[in-house]
Amino acid sequence: MESKLIISEAELSQGKWHENTLKMARHLFRVHGYLNVQNLYPKEYLRTVCDSYMQQLEFSEDRTELKSGTMVSHKRYITPIKFEGVFNDVRLWANPFLLQLMKQFLGPNPILGSLGAVTSLSGAMDQHPHADYFPLFEESPEAVSMLPPYAITVAVPLIDIDLLNGPTKVWAGSQHVYPVETAMSSYAKHLVCGPLGSCYMWDYRTFHAGGSNHSDEPRPLLYMAYTRRWFNDFLNPDLLDISPEEYEKIPQEFHPLFQKAAVRRLVCRK
Ligand SMILES: O=C(O)CCC(=O)C(=O)O
């Protein structure tokens, strides 16, 4: 069974999850290592995000390659995103339903650690299974199954994503095992996708892989990493960088989400 939730009409009108749904979300995320929420974002806003992102991309003349970003597997590119314009918007990173989930999964003080997008081009092949980070205590495999998440990747489809243009394959439950069984046959493989407005999130330890793109169009998937305050992600090059001008635009109540980016800037200036 897929680990999936739909926000109810009553929850949408109240702007928050019902307590029981939150408990269910926590249970699903802990057991499966991921959660798919089908209706988290307003579609009109995401269309503006998609337009802005696609305008930033530089394609080769025949559109078979991307010149911007880093190729992470066949015809699949990660591009960091500048924290400005439509991306410096509370609707994206402070969506009330999303923040409630992040606090359930990561404790009361989550940090936004990175912002980027992964785009697979037409013809992209299946990516290799991987986790976004190592287990924290590699010398103690038994700890891996007990520890709660320390970081989460939140993926936001910028178009309707389906089985044709490229779901993200997720090996449910693999976040609890170390060393992981590399053939992945011990874990249930879920093909996670959703329409514009949906959002799926996985534990940094959960094995996953971008699926092949059999459509004629690029498949852009925005991502944000939310982490516990003390976690430092040494593997990902796209740590959030916020200029002082953009930081000023962030409402005060959300400054705790950006504590680390703010401190990094102060330290780097010295
Ligand atoms: O393309 C996807 O669906 C996921 C990509 C991914 O996990 C990665 O590039 O690290």
State the fourth-level CATH superfamily: q2cbj1_9rhob like domain
Mean of the pLDDT scores?
Answer: 93
Total separate domains: 1
Annotation field: number of helices: 8
Give the overall shape: globular
Low-pLDDT windows of residues: none
CATH top level?
Answer: Mainly Beta
Instruction: Provide the helix percentage.
Output: 25-40%
- The radius of gyration computed from the alpha-carbon positions, rounded to a whole number of angstroms, is 18 Å
In oligomeric terms, what are we looking at? single chain
* CATH A-level architecture: Sandwich
Looking at the structure, the CATH topology is: Jelly Rolls
Residue fraction in strands: 15-25%
End-to-end Cα distance, whole Å, is 52 Å
Largest sheet: 8 strands, mixed
* Total beta-strand segments: 11
State the secondary-structure class.
Answer: alpha+beta
How does this model look, in words?
The chain is of the alpha+beta class and 270 residues long. The protein has a single domain (4-269), classed as Sandwich (Jelly Rolls). The protein is 26% helix and 22% strand. It has eight helices and eleven strands. The protein has helices spanning 9-14, 19-32, 43-56, 90-93, 96-106, 141-146, 244-248, 259-269; strands at 4-5, 34-37, 70-73, 76-80, 111-120, 151-157, 168-172, 188-192, 199-203, 208-210, 219-227. The strands form two sheets. Strands 1-2-9-6-11-5-4-3 form an eight-stranded mixed β-sheet. Strands 8-7-10 form a three-stranded antiparallel β-sheet, with no helix packed on it. The longest helix has 14 residues, at 19-32. The chain is globular, with a radius of gyration of 18 Å. The model has no long low-confidence stretch (mean pLDDT 93). The chain binds 2-oxoglutaric acid. Residues 72, 76, 78, 118, 120, 127, 168, 208, 210, 221 line the site of 2-oxoglutaric acid.
